[in-house]
Amino acid sequence: MAGTRRTIEGGRSAKGLRIAIVAARFNHFVVDKLLAGAVDTLTQAGISTQDLDIVRVPGAFEIPLAARKLCQSRNYDAVITLGAVIRGGTPHFDYVAGECARGVSDAARDSGLPVIFGVLTCDDMEQATERSGGKHGNKGADAALAAIEMADLLRKLES
Q: Which domains are assigned to the chain?
């Protein structure tokens, strides 16, 4: 029928999805809040505990390698990456944040799986606190919602 258009989008149920979370230990006081937000969101959306794996890595720089390996396993419908890179007085921030973002993007592109970038890149601790359960919400929870929607969308697009 001419003029009729169909919209395809992902749903918000995690029931039946297998999801992995890669979470950095560095800046754990921020990342642990992101992780709690993500797990809570996934649980509320119906994921079963046996379908959720959490992988801890030393820092944000190590996130892409773990995400890539999880994607290569083909055991997951989506991978969520969580970390916090906080600007300091050296260019270290730019290298770590940039390489983490690039690596996560590469893992998604190369695998065809949703790899969600839930890594905070903040100027200071106040910004990180605001985004890990403060006045700007919990970006870990937001990342979990994005993972659910994208995994469901890809299932729909493949069928």
A: 19-158 (3.40.50.960)
